[in-house]
Structure formats: C-alpha cells, structure tokens
Design goal:
It is a single chain. The chain has one domain. 77% of the residues lie in helices and 0% in strands. It has four helices and no strands. Helix 1 crosses helix 2 and helix 1 packs parallel to helix 3. By secondary structure, it is mainly α. The chain is elongated, with a radius of gyration of 17 Å.
Length: 79
Amino acid sequence: MRCLESARLISERRDHPLPWRKRVSLRFHLLLCALCRTYETQIGAMCGICHHIGAEPSSHAPALPDARKQAIREARTRD
C-alpha cells in the first residue's frame, strides 16, 4: 500500500468501518510508515478540535434559528 492510499483510508474510516482486508492493509502500512502514523494522529486531533469547537457556543457566530440548531444536532448524532 502506498501512502496516498493510506491517507485516503485513514479519512474514509472516520466515516464508516472499513472492510477487513483494507483494515489489515492499513494497519500493516501504519506499522511501517511513521509519516502516515503522524498523519493519522493529526487528522484525529483536527477532528477532535472541530467537534469541540462545534459543541461550544461562539460569541462571534450569528444566532441560528432554533429549527436549524435542531437539524445540526440531529446530523451530529447520526455520525
């Protein structure tokens, strides 16, 4: 597996579970490739920051209608 494929799978598995062959291939690649392990860590940190920011009300953001807030909450729980 090349790093480009690894990066795609790292991102893809945040959206849904990978088939077992892809999981094994990615796991093996990550054992061998320090750069992809770093990328995986960075993506995880970035997603964590985005979720944290999305959970906090911001004084800089314009007020959203209640219906829109509810739609966003529902979309977040589906993920």
